[in-house]
Design a protein that fits this description.
The protein has about 240 residues and is α/β, with parallel strands linked by helices. Helices cover about 30% and strands about 25% of the residues. The chain contains 6 helices and 10 strands, in the order αβββαβαβαβββαββα. Helix 2 packs parallel to helix 3. The radius of gyration is 19 Å and the shape is globular.
Amino acid sequence: MYFEIVQNKIQQMATIISIETSTNVCSVCLSVDGRIVANKEDHQGQNHSSVLGGFVKELVETAKTQNMSIDAVAVSCGPGSYTGLRIGVSTAKGLAFGLDAKLISVSTLKTIAGSIARTHQELNGNAWICPMIDARRMEVYNAFFNTSLGQERDTAATIVNENSFYDILAERQVVFCGNGAPKCKKAITHSNAIFIDDADPLAKDMVPLAEALFHAGKFEDIAYFEPYYLKEFVAEHSQKKLW
């Protein structure tokens, strides 16, 4: 009887590889039942295409040496860097297909909000968290979450000025975070505005969200899934003559 109970418990555990490439940080994490087994991060800039493959290979080998079968691959789906998202999603889709694993997509903004909610439990229960992804000049991709990670405002691309989010700030504290937040400090000066630096979206912070989505059976179609870019990519044409 004891053996059967242990076997049932093991079958309910999820082994997931999480991939985050939506900003200039590239990270990969291996987790089992929400527990982090291995984690790899590169904070040196846009090196995703050169480091991601090695990170993934290392984690797959780690899983093999510990006799783990990968149940799912979770990937940050955006919004974020167009190139970074393409690299991450194409890698995740290929890995999921090759391992016959499920594909899970996790919101980049919710990953950041989740990290803040877990590490800053002193926040006022009425406070909202506004993760921001840099989108050039004074534009940011953003959304609003309560401290229980319920989404209060839809994801949007916003050009920030001194009047931005005034209606929300008039009613509650708002924690602005993510790589788009620092440039907004001079524009958003309301006393209810709180800025938290160094809140990059990381694969290890995707783990609780990916675990919940796995057990809820919320999977993506590997063949047709695309990242959430929010805005179409527009290539800039060089003004230099080629000849």
